[in-house]
Structure formats: structure tokens, C-alpha cells
Design a protein that fits this description.
Layout (H helix, E strand, L loop, with lengths): L5 E3 L1 H9 L1 H9 L15 H13 L5 H6 L1 H13 L1 H4 L6 E12 L2 E12 L4 E7 L6 H9 L1 H13 L7 E9 L2 E9 L2 H27 L25 H17 L1
Parallel strand pairs: 1-3, 4-5
Antiparallel strand pairs: 2-3, 3-4, 5-6
């Protein structure tokens, strides 16, 4: 692998750890799926994030609240249940869209926090999600998601806070539900586990990329039985749609016999 510095976000890590071939198509060959052509600027998530960023920067927001009732309703509900998050507290520092980066070998790991609140006692990472809170059975997946793990890891690596002083707080905001939150605390054991997994993941990425360059070998596919391929926009260039067709064809042949 060359000495080029790669910038990796939580999206890169999530895609690669799920399916290396999808990583190849998405980031190396930059395939564009028809599914990606969506006007996401109109979603509540984008509008709410923009509003909260404007507000934290001290820019005027009255016009947004006057013209966007969904954002207004969502913000008012959040302010009612979490005033300590919405309004600045004494002896704290806070910043929206806060960027943190850490160079690990020749990978620049980068995260952008929706809101970071720092005090002498703790560091709190805030992330806004504009959909209902997932059930408890799904929350382990959220904790293991690379957004959660990378953002906690980066702050521990780039600040004087110990892992035990850092927390990740997801807020689920939706116009049809009362805002709720899930908090994931951090500790030294989790930090070391993330360090180890990141090291192995980046080593594997280097290996596949070297084979891709020198031997024109494609990145490996995820196992079909894991169920990721059915909704993947790259199942046609990946050839996974043919496997489904072969199954259907064999079923038809069995019926004919």
C-alpha cells in the first residue's frame, strides 16, 4: 500500500466491516446507485441538524421556527425534556459540528460531532436522530455501530479526558414522539477493545487494497446468508442478484418435474 493518507469516517468503517466489496464499489470505484439520487435536503433530519447548528453558532433562527413547524415542534419538545442540553450551562464549553481527527498509521480517523459539551468533570457527545428510539433489543447494535465506537475513541485519544469521563448521548427526535435518549458510557476496557479491533480492521483494509492494486483482486464479498445483499444497491454488479435468480429458477424446475 502506498503512503497516501486515507481519511476514514464512521461511514467508511461501517461499510468495510459489513462488506469489503461494498467498500470497494462505494469508495474506490465510486459507483453510484439510483437509490442514492434522493433530495435529502428536505428531510427533517437535515433541517433539524441545520437549525441546531445555526443556533449553536449564534445565527438567527427565528425565520426557521416561523416557517418550519416540524423543526419548531421538535425543538420545543427537546427543550422541554432536556433544557440542560439545549441551553448552555455554567462552566461548560460547547460546539456544534465539532471535528476530531486522529492519525493511526496512515489512516486519518475523523468524526464530526453534532454537539460536544465539555466540563471539568465529563465530556458529552451529542448526536441527533430524527426517528423514534429503537427498542432495547436493537440498542446493542447502536452501541456497536462505528459511529458510537469511533467518536468515543477519538475523544479519548485527542483529549485529556479519561475514557470513564466520556459519554455518548443519542437523542431521538420525531414530531410524532416525545424526545428520548440513550447514553453509552465509555471505559478503559471498551477503549482497548476498540483500539484492537481498529488495528485489525485497518490491517485487513491495507491487505485487500494492496491485492486490489497489485493483482487486480476484488475485495471479498460478505457471506450471502448474512442477509445484507437483498437490499444492497450493488447486488447487480456484485452478481448477487444472479444467485437469487438461480434459486428461483431451480424452484421452477422442481415444480415442472
Amino acid at each position: 500500500m502506498t503512503e497516501t493518507i486515507w481519511q476514514l469516517s464512521q461511514n467508511h468503517l461501517n461499510v468495510f466491516s459489513t462488506c469489503p466489496r461494498k467498500f470497494q464499489y462505494t469508495y474506490l470505484e465510486q459507483f453510484i446507485s439510483p437509490c442514492l439520487f434522493q433530495n435529502s435536503n428536505l428531510t427533517l433530519g437535515n433541517r433539524f441538524h441545520h437549525f441546531m447548528q445555526q443556533r449553536e453558532m449564534g445565527l438567527p433562527t427565528a425565520e426557521i421556527l416561523a416557517t418550519d413547524q416540524s423543526v419548531k415542534k421538535s425543538f420545543n419538545a427537546l427543550a422541554e425534556v432536556a433544557p440542560n442540553i439545549v441551553y448552555p450551562q455554567p462552566q461548560t464549553w460547547r460546539q456544534a459540528e465539532h471535528r476530531r481527527s486522529f492519525l493511526k498509521e496512515n489512516f486519518l480517523l475523523t468524526g464530526i460531532y453534532d454537539l460536544l459539551i465539555l466540563s471539568t468533570e465529563e465530556a458529552l457527545i451529542i448526536d441527533w436522530k430524527t426517528y423514534p428510539q429503537p427498542p432495547k433489543s436493537k440498542q446493542k447494535q447502536l452501541e456497536n455501530n462505528w459511529q458510537t465506537r469511533l467518536y468515543l475513541y477519538l475523544l479519548a485519544k485527542t483529549s485529556s479526558y479519561s475514557p470513564e469521563q466520556i459519554k455518548f448521548n443519542y437523542w431521538f427526535i420525531n414530531v410524532t414522539h416525545q424526545p428520548t435518549s440513550v447514553t453509552f458510557p465509555y471505559n478503559r476496557e471498551k477503549h482497548e477493545a476498540t483500539e484492537k479491533e481498529l488495528t485489525e480492521l485497518l490491517k485487513t483494509l491495507k491487505h485487500h487494497y494492496q491485492q486490489y492494486l497489485e493483482q487486480e483482486m476484488s475485495f471479498p464479498q460478505v457471506e450471502a446468508n448474512k442477509g445484507y445483499c437483498q437490499d444492497c444497491p450493488f447486488r447487480i454488479p456484485c452478481g448477487r442478484h444472479l444467485e437469487k435468480e438461480e434459486i428461483l429458477f431451480s424452484d421452477i424446475e422442481e415444480v415442472r418435474i
